[in-house]
């Protein structure tokens, strides 16, 4: 840290992304990327857009906005595309949180929430998950502030039913509820259907997971017109050209190829079930994940040791140091071949550690 760094950020703890190693080829199951390539239509349209990179991208992202609106049966002015869902989440912290409206989120959830709060000088409170790592909506009912709920949650993968999200929205119509649905396409219920019923709901999603576009950085928010207008005020005050032309085009291509996305999601769901069954046969305990990852621990080998042993054998998973979850590893669900390699390697490690 230099002597010029602003004091307002000197205690900021940045988000730690998952490893993206360059030194060797790994079976990479640590950052919840899709094992499948993007839709051919996405690649084709991105390539066509690359021929006009001398021009700024469309600040309104009109083609992408219209495609998203058609996909979700909402109005174009109820959609805002962003540079990954991280950007729409940061916009929400900027627009809807302050000293009078602190941020509320779980103690074990997406690590960027606390970073966004600190970055924007927003007071926040973390609400402990239950012992089984599920979110208790009752713990949020009588608290003041803007609520951020990842559904399914990360890194646990546990999803709330839509009825619980609605109960939270009904409990206090005068506070914003942000539902982060990065993993919703792998078996959870989306809250997008509620945006016309509740004007205090913002739903965020991403193209990174189910649509195989993590490297393109494309996310979006869906909410009533007035909330989107608020978020657009933040966007046009920071970076009007926040989504590049190739990413916009790839997004439109992906949305036009919904069958491709659905097929990949089903393959991941099937591979998740296969992997969960195999891990259970080896003695692992897991949460009921509705995401493209499993959250697992073993009674004999601790999480850090398993992570280290797997890494040494060329397999990356994600380990967290927080005390409540240090025995667990988050394992991205990849292709069937990748999961078979994982299971066989774990079987070998357990044999060696008897």
Task: Explain how this protein is built.
With 354 residues, the chain is of the alpha/beta class. It has 2 domains: 17-36 and 259-352, Aspartate Aminotransferase, domain 1, CATH 3.90.1150; 40-256, 3-Layer(aba) Sandwich (Aspartate Aminotransferase, domain 2). It contains 11 helices and 13 strands. It has helices at residues 40-49, 62-72, 84-96, 112-119, 138-141, 162-171, 225-236, 245-255, 258-281, 303-312, 336-352, and strands at residues 27-28, 79-82, 103-106, 124-127, 146-150, 177-180, 201-206, 219-223, 285-286, 293-297, 315-316, 318-319, 329-332. The strands form 3 sheets. Strands 2-8-7-6-5-3-4 form a 7-stranded mixed sheet, sandwiched between helices. Strand 3 (103-106), helix 4 (112-119) and strand 4 form a beta-alpha-beta unit. It is globular and about 60 Å long.
In total, how many beta strands? 13
CATH topology of the largest domain: Aspartate Aminotransferase, domain 2
CATH architectural designation of the largest domain: 3-Layer(aba) Sandwich
Enumerate the spans where pLDDT stays under 50 for 5 or more consecutive residues: none
Approximately what portion of the residues adopt beta-strand conformation? 5-15%
User: If you compute it from the alpha carbons, what radius of gyration comes out, rounded to the nearest whole angstrom?
Assistant: 20 Å
- Biggest β-sheet: count, sense, barrel? 7 strands, mixed
User: What is the arithmetic mean of pLDDT?
Assistant: 96
Neighbour order of strands in the largest sheet? 2-8-7-6-5-3-4
Number of domains: 2
**Helix percentage range:** 25-40%
Shape: globular
DSSP helix count?
11
CATH superfamily of the largest domain: Type I PLP-dependent aspartate aminotransferase-like (Major domain)
Distance linking N and C termini: 46 Å
CATH class of the largest domain: Alpha Beta
Computed structural class? alpha/beta
**SSE ordering:** EHHEHEHEHEHEEEHHHEEHEEEH
């Amino acid at each position: 840290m230099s002597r010029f760094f602003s004091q307002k950020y000197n205690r900021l703890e940045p988000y730690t992304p998952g490893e993206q190693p360059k030194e060797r080829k790994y079976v990479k199951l640590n950052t919840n990327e899709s094992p499948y390539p993007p839709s051919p239509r996405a690649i084709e349209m991105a390539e066509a857009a690359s021929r006009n990179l001398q021009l700024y991208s469309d600040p309104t992202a009109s083609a992408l906005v219209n495609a998203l609106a058609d996909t979700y049966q909402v109005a174009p002015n109820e959609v805002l595309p962003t540079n990954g869902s991280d950007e729409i989440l940061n916009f929400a912290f900027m627009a809807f949180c302050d000293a009078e409206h602190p941020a509320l989120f779980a103690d074990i959830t997406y690590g960027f929430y606390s970073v966004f709060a600190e970055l924007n000088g927003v007071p926040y409170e973390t609400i402990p998950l239950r012992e089984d790592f599920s979110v208790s909506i009752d713990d949020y009912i009588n608290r003041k502030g803007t609520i951020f709920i990842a559904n399914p949650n990360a890194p646990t993968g546990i999803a709330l039913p839509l009825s619980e999200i609605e109960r939270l929205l009904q409990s206090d119509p005068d506070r914003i509820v942000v539902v982060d649905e990065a993993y919703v396409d792998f078996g959870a219920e989306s809250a997008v259907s509620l945006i016309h019923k509740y004007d205090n709901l913002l739903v965020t999603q991403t193209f990174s997971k189910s649509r195989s576009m993590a490297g393109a950085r494309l996310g979006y928010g869906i909410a009533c017109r007035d909330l989107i207008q608020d978020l657009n005020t933040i966007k046009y005050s920071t970076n009007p050209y926040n989504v590049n032309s190739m990413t916009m085009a790839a997004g439109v291509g992906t949305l036009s190829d919904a069958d491709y996305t659905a097929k990949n999601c089903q393959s991941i769901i099937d591979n998740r079930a296969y992997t969960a069954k195999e891990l259970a046969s080896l003695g692992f305990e897991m949460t009921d994940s509705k995401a493209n990852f499993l959250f697992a621990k073993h009674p004999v080998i601790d999480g850090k040791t398993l992570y280290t042993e797997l890494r040494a054998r060329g397999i990356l998973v994600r380990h967290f140091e927080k005390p409540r979850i240090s025995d667990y590893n988050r394992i991205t669900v990849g292709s069937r071949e990748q999961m078979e390699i994982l299971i066989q390697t774990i079987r070998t490690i357990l044999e060696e550690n008897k």
